[in-house]
Amino acid sequence: MYTSFFGLTEKPFAITPDPRYLYLSERHAEALAHLAYGIAEAGGFIQLTGEVGTGKTTVLRSLLQQLPPHCDVALILNPRVTPAEFLQCICDELHVQVLPAATGSVKALVDLLTHFLLDAHGRSRRVVLMVDEAQNLSADVLEQVRLLTNLETATQKLLQILLIGQPELRAVLAQPELRQLAQRVTGRYHLEALRRPETIAYIRHRLRVAGATRDVIAPAALGELHRLSRGVPRIINVIADRALLGAYTREEHRVTSSLVRRAASEVYGRPVLAPWLRWAAIAGAVAGAALLAVAIWRTMPAEKPAVPPATVAQAAPAAAVPAPAPAPPPRPQLGALLALDAAGTTMDSAFGSLFRMWGGEYLPSNGLGCVQAANQGLTCVWQRGSLAQLKLINRPAILSLVDDTNSSRQVVLSGLGQGQARLLIGASEVEVPIAELADYWFGEFLVLWRPQSGQLRPLRAGMRGEDVGWLRHGLEQLGGLPISEPSRDVFDAELERLVEDFQRSRRLSVDGVAGVQTQLVLDAALGAPGTPRLADTGTEAGA
Fold first, then answer.
1. Residue 230 and residue 194: Cα distance in Å, rounded?
2. Which residues in the chain are classed under CATH 3.40.50.300?
């Protein structure tokens, strides 16, 4: 979505573990070195702990890539099993054949593993058992794990065990009944979050791998990313991805600190303030308490000296001071408007407004709005994009906003102009600055479409049908070309070239495939009758 906008080849902050994006900080490299040494030299257990998202799985995958060829690995990813199931999983990972009679028997499974381990030792092979999410191991399974360490020769353990888990694993192993197991832990390492310089280097590394040739994220925003993520790589990825999407919807080519805070608010589900605003809020609370104390003190009754009656009689009346004219009420901000009209910002309310603009009727239906649209010959199209895309589509759209309480609100975009957007919030129509709208909108929208061919599908080379004919005729009409015969309903090389030219002229992704976006923009350019348009807010429409 936003990749081409920022000159990227792919999304840089996906949370899936891609080896190409591996960044080993000093702490990750140290943890990896500890584990590699423990597997090569030590016996018994090795323990790796870390908070959620700190990169334990990354270290584990790096370790697997560095293991020597003479190592056999059993990797257990789901430790919520019984002792017999745990042993069965190890056998499955090591390709130990288990006969049906041995299934479910702890003794039979241990005998099979013992035979396998002795055979591997005789062939100078090393067997490593890795257990991820080890904090979820039950006491019975942990005891079985301990018994596995008894499998040894006179000089060497037959099985090296690596336990990987969250900090709770340390508390689990500290239980008195597991002291025998804890005594056999020969290596421990706790993986901490990234420091600020490491966070910045991590972000820049991922952007560079994704093809960035410039600073997509401002230096100050990098510092905010570290502060709000606390250096946890997974949270860094989630916030950075949302911040890039937010910048894309605002058509800003650089992520700012405010966009990072907005993205963090959505991720955490609560408002996130700038550091100076947080301290200002604290200072304001202190100052408010002080002013309250002063106000209470000043309102307390005090003894006043008696005034002679003559003095009172001689006092001249004070001149009347004209009261100042009342100031006009301030214009409500978008956040306040959303808070004031909760009933008018539901999906049902938004669908009702959008249906009326299409001349249809909508009945509240618990999320079945698209079903009702289909019954009226319309198709729902959910997309993520920018206001520039909505300008090209030129249709009213339901925007999904995130308010100051991180609640989802739905409004209808009915008009768009230079710097202003017109919104339908319940029964009210308001104009708000586009910059203010962008603070609450991360690019998600829904439009209705009445396909001219009656169906909706991506159109590409080799396809044929009524929709292909509509595509060809529409492009020929826009280009001032001779209209083809109705029989030319095949997507050939000539039509692919027309599609590419149209995409290039509208600044769409040029791939020669008429996807939903291309078809919507084409339909808007053709000006199909009966299709509502985005109103101009008074100036040249733009985003």
1. 8
2. 26-191
CATH code for the part of the protein at 334-449? 3.90.70.10
Q: To 10 degrees, what angle do helices 196-209 and 233-249 make?
A: 60
Mean pLDDT calculated for residue range 30-38:
82
Tell me the C-alpha distance between 524 and 538, whole Å: 20
CB atoms within 10 A of CB 178: 16
Q: What is the CATH topology of the domain spanning 26-191?
A: Rossmann fold (3.40.50)
* 357/190 Cα distance (integer angstroms): 59
Quick one: fold of 466-526? Answer: Muramoyl-pentapeptide Carboxypeptidase; domain 1 (1.10.101)
Roughly how many angstroms between the first and final C-alpha of the chain, as a whole number? 17
**Residue 59 in tokens:** 């270290």
Residues 225-275: tens digit of each pLDDT: 999 998 999 999 999 999 998 888 888 889 999 899 988 888 887 777 655
Q: What is the pLDDT of residues 170-208, one digit of tens each?
A: 888 888 878 888 887 877 888 888 888 999 999 999 999
Q: How distant is the alpha carbon of residue 531 from its chain centre?
A: 34
CA-nearest of 340, 321, 322 to 331 is: 340
Q: Which residue has the tokens 């790096």?
A: 62
Fold of 196-268: Helicase, Ruva Protein; domain 3 (1.10.8)
Which residues in the chain are classed under CATH 1.10.8? 196-268
CB neighbour class for 503 (10 Å; exposed up to 12, middle 13-18, buried from 19): buried
Q: State the span(s) of the chain assigned CATH 3.90.70.10.
A: 334-449
Three-state DSSP at 20 gives: helix
